[in-house]
Sequence to fold (283 residues):
Amino acid sequence: MHNAVIDQADARRHLGEDDWVLIDCRFVIREPAQGERDFERSHVRGALYAHLDRDLSGPIVPGRTGRHPLPAPDAFTDSVRQWGIGDGTQVVVYDDSSGSMAAARLWWLLRWAGHEAVAVLDGGFQRWVAAGFAVEAGPAGGHAGRSPFVPRFRAEMAVDADDVLAVLHDPDWVVLDARAADRYRGENETLDPVAGHIPGAVSAPWQDNLAADGSFRSSAELQERLERLTGGRSPSRTVLYCGSGVTAAHQALAFVQAGKGMPRLYAGSWSHWITDPARPVAR
Fold:
């Protein structure tokens, strides 16, 4: 079973097998329809498509949710069933962004729903194409066939703003901000109306999980980095956030790839934190 990052050659060997499902998550934040168009032009042979806004997020409620709230459990369960994912299915997810951000979101959601056998394709679609592996064209939306997937949601994986407030000054806990360092400092905020970070949070840019070629660093390198950032605290006492809960899922993937276990995710993240002006902000 692959449950973190999977090598391109390993994924290729299982292409077309009935108990393997590949899902393309390509998405462009400022052009939400672009990923689906790119999928139609070319995608890994046999892959399905998942849209970040439509399939991997719930409805946005202005002033009450972040930019990518979690989907309702029933809605996500229905999506998983339509993708043909059952208890014995190995899922491989990918996109074409640096570090597979949207793919990491689907990876986290499936783990949240209790499906362990899901892995992110290391290097994404770009490396697949560069290696000359099989691709095809065609419309998005095809499904592998509805499955009787039974969810086992892990409520402990997700925390809300009140949970974060409760541990901000607890030395046994650590909060990691996965955004770029300039956004953490409040110097270059282009997506959210308020700049800054949650007080006491540690800057931990998700990009630092990657090597220069866009692949994940070795498990040993990730372990060293995460031990330093968390001060040795356990994943169960580590909270991750970002702008809207997407790149924080990438940070969670790094924890699991490093063999450290699953941390907690504040899925609403910064875009939800700032909906209440009473919540503190640091710059």
